[in-house]
Each structure stands twice: as C-alpha cells, then as structure tokens.
C-alpha cells in the first residue's frame, strides 16, 4: 500500500513539471526608484506603528513597484529605498508618473531617528537622499 502511494506521488510530481518552460523569454531586474517626497509625522511615539507615505517616480511602463528596503545604519539612522522591477520589453513607454505608496515604521528607541530616503544618483553616480530627523516621544506621552 505504501509503495503504491509513493509511486503515485512520484508520478504527480513528475507531471506537475511537465510543460514548464524554465527558459522563459521574460527577463527582469530590480531597480531603485527615485523618491520625490515623503509625508512624516512631526514626531514618533515609541513602540507605536506609524504609516509613512512616500511618493516615488515611475520612469516607464515596464517598471513596477515591488516594495521598500529599509537599511539600519548607525544608532537610529535608517535608509529607505523604493524597489521596482524592470521588465525588459521592446514596448516600454517613457513616463514621468509620481505614485504614492506607504509602509509601516516603528520607532523602538527614545531620542531622534534620521530617515534617509533614496532620491537618485548625483552626476558622479553617488546616491543622494532626502533626509529627515524625527524626534521620538516616550510611550504614553502625547
């Protein structure tokens, strides 16, 4: 009985891959999207979740928003990058759309947070950031 179940499972696995084309013609890469503006509260409350609205630039019809990467720096410094996927196609149309997305941020430490939002590269190819310093109120203090 067990041998029949194992054979049946093997057949199901083999046929589940039948017809899959691993060498698909679709080719994509992840890209950093330029952040053009950010809506932040005047202060964060410690251990509370805060919704941060970010407006980024969508450069063409082949680039799609995927989410945000948040990188921890020294102490309370965070660098935030909007991530997109660029699907290589011949029919991409250039555009200059500003689109808003949001993410949740929780300040765990008292003091101030420095939030750096990627806004593109300078003439030398070095990343540039929109930088905001936001104070943190202790829990229970309004």
Automatic annotation (TrEMBL):
So which domain of life are we looking at? Bacteria
Q: What is this protein called?
A: GOLD domain-containing protein
């Amino acid at each position: 009985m067990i041998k029949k179940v194992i054979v049946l499972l093997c057949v199901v696995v083999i046929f589940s891959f039948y017809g899959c084309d691993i060498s698909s013609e679709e080719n994509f890469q992840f890209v950093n999207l330029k952040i053009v503006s950010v809506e932040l509260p005047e202060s964060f409350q410690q251990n509370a979740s805060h919704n941060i609205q970010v407006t980024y630039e969508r450069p063409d019809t082949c680039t799609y928003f995927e989410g945000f990467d948040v990188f921890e720096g020294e102490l309370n410094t965070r660098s935030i990058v909007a991530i997109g996927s660029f699907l290589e196609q011949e029919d991409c149309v250039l555009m200059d759309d500003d689109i808003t997305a949001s993410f949740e941020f929780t300040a765990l430490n008292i003091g101030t947070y420095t939030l750096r939002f990627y806004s593109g590269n300078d003439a030398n190819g070095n990343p540039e950031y929109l930088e905001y310093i936001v104070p943190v109120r202790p829990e229970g203090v309004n």
